[in-house]
Structure prediction request, 536 residues.
Amino acid sequence: MSFRCEAVTKVFPSWPEDVVALRDVTFTVAPERFTCLVGPSGCGKSTLLRIIARLERPTSGTVVYQRGRQPGELRAAMVFQDLGLFPWMTVIDNVAFGLEMLGMGRAERHARAEAFLTRVGLGGFLRNYPHELSGGMRQRAAILRAFLVDSPVLLMDEPFGALDSQTRLVMQEELLHIWKEHKRTILYVTHDIEEAILMGDEVIVMSGRPGTIRQIIPINIERPRQLADRNHPELADLRLQIWRMLEDEVRRDLKIAV
Amino acid sequence: MKASASALSAAADVRRAKSRDAWTRRMPVLVALVLLAAWQVLAQQGMVSRIFLPAPSRIFTFLGQSLVKGDLLPAIGATLSRMIVGFVIGAIPALLLGWAMGRARGVRMFFDPVIAALHPVPKIAIFPLLMLVFGIGEGSKVVAIAISTFFPIVINTYTGTRQINPVYFEVARNYGADRWKTLRRVVFPGSLPTALAGIRIALNTSFVIAIAVELLASRTGLGVMIWFAWQTLRVEQLYGTLFVTAVIGIALNAATAAMSRWLAPWAQPPRERAGARL
Prediction:
């Protein structure tokens, strides 16, 4: 399912002057595409994602989904930046949480969650609590929870931001693998330019304060992509191109900070 | 040769560490026994006044006798049943109000100042007033216990609810949780560890208040035994009853600790080393 942001603007009232987090953000995410949203920290990426997930209202503008919500369906499931797993639920209950909220019985949702967990190597941790898992395992569980509800749209807010670079690489490949099997429309927020290029069909570049869209760049590297050897000829060019767009702003922010 | 020698010494290290742990575990018991023995000797030799400090043997003889006579167990029963009834009457509204205050702004705005004003009042000081209202029978005692139970639980439940990371509410909302499901899956478990800490404090307080109201106005219970012992100067009975209250206190703590392990297994501190349990 596709969705579209139309002139989304978000203003946070503040003193001495209001903070404009997003201004006139307009773009369309095509169905079953992997779209990455990249931008410097504080450019309103997370706010935009929360608006798309309807966790927050835009000050003006709208988010339009291709079709209305059907009964018993969750249109957009979100993978939160961190802490998305409930510490008081076991892994299987966490992963089955979406199904539970949709009203599915315990036996059925546990069976589905277990099948999924076993496939990604978490079969031995069904009854463990999140704090007993490694960071990578926790993120895997959080992503499975979002995939399991069969929502046509997945919103991911820097899901691998807290992982070390090796684990991150493995998780990126794993996510692409799951996505290949269960095609969804994914909007993936990151501040890592290389990650955005390697994962996405399309990269939306945002600049900050106020958050606006700089450019939408199609990525034509063929899939499956070998993430381990990052030597695609296009990669360096694209990286430079995006970096040029963001460079001034990052430098400006640093100067302000110093 | 060298390798096997180091393996041997590693095994020896493990053995030494294990026996050290075993000793640390036994340490509290050992200390208690040594102190009791010293006390016994001092008392028997008449080096301390028997009026202030009767020998442990005499205290335990008294406890044995009153078990046989059948006045100790009914007293324990009277105190505990009073305490439990009061505790339940205080705890249930405290939990409900704590959750309501944590989730509803209106409820919070109304009750926050009320609780802030009433909480510091020493609960035992209002006991005469309670007797005036509820009579000198069981009612006033149970109410005094209930009130003393109410405050620590309502404050902890409220705090625990407020401290739940907002992300969890967003996750619930994102997955379409309604009000009741949010309460059941986020609010109750999220506030539980802090609420349980309040319940633990409340259980101790309710025991203290139960004994206190029995000292003031009662015909049954451990408080009565203590007061009666003082008035008739039966020092063994005084010490014996105090010993029983101490044992009950320890048992209550152990029971609440077991309850938190059972109800909130995710929130337990990492397994502590032997000897660090008290």
About this structure: Chain B has two domains: 1-39, 56-277. The mean pLDDT of chain B is 89. Residues 146 and 196 of chain B are 17 Å apart (CA to CA). The first helix of chain B runs from residue 2 to 44.
